[in-house]
Amino acid sequence: MNISTIQEIVKKDGIVFLTYGGFLSQALISGMTEALEKEAKQSDLNMGDANNIFIIFIELAQNMMNYSKTKSKDNNDLASEGLIVVGKDNELNYYIHSQNVVGKEDKEKIEPKLKEILTLDKEEIKRMYRELRKSGKNTHGKGGGIGFYEIAKRCDKINYEFIEINENKFYFHFKAEVATK
Fold first, then answer.
1. From residue 69, how far is each of 24, 82, 98, 175, 180 by CA, in Å?
2. Which domain of life is it from (predicted)?
3. What is the distance between the alpha carbons of residues 78 and 81, in angstroms, rounded to a whole number?
């Protein structure tokens, strides 16, 4: 990607506060969250909106860490790799985009949950989230899912797309939008 591609994104989608593409670690996510906190303070973003953005960012980054199916260059191990962008559009709303490679099995676990979430209103999302938290189902160790309910609770709109790379791998694009109050 060249810089003109990023300039086009900024022109179309607004200001970009944070862009990262590459290998993810918990320490890196923590550092990026600190950078977002500083940006929120400088932008006089209210605490509720700032927390929503931070939590969505963390959930998406952790999903990329846990479910990426990209082979590392030096061996055949899977690498926690992805792309994440946090920015503000021209209407002063925030967006968090993520992209990573997932396997067919993970796509088949994730997609039905996202389809269900898109059919629910905010109260139904909150109810499902509480039920999942109490039951212990859909934790990261059991195939993911509760994090998407957490994201849906905190944002105003989500979009996602799976693009086939081959029969066993897919690009997973996800976008959450937070309208500022």
1. 13, 10, 14, 19, 34
2. Bacteria
3. 9
- Per-residue buried b or exposed e for 53-64, using 16+ beta carbons within 10 Å of the residue's own CB: bbbbbbbbbbbb
pLDDT of residue 116: 95
- pLDDT at residue 104, rounded to an integer: 93
Q: Minimal CA–CA distance to 164: which of 111, 101, 112, 109?
A: 101
Residues of the chain with pLDDT under 70: 1-3, 6, 9-17, 69-79, 90, 137-144
Domains of the chain: 3-178 (3.30.565.10)
pLDDT of the residue at 70: 57
The dihedral over CA atoms of 33, 50, 145, 118, expressed in degrees to the nearest 10, equals -140
Q: What angle do CA 68, 36, 101 make, to 5 degrees?
A: 10
User: Virtual CA dihedral for 118, 153, 55, 18, nearest 10 degrees?
Assistant: 50
Exposed/middle/buried for residue 179 (C-beta within 10 Å: 0-12, 13-18, 19+):
middle
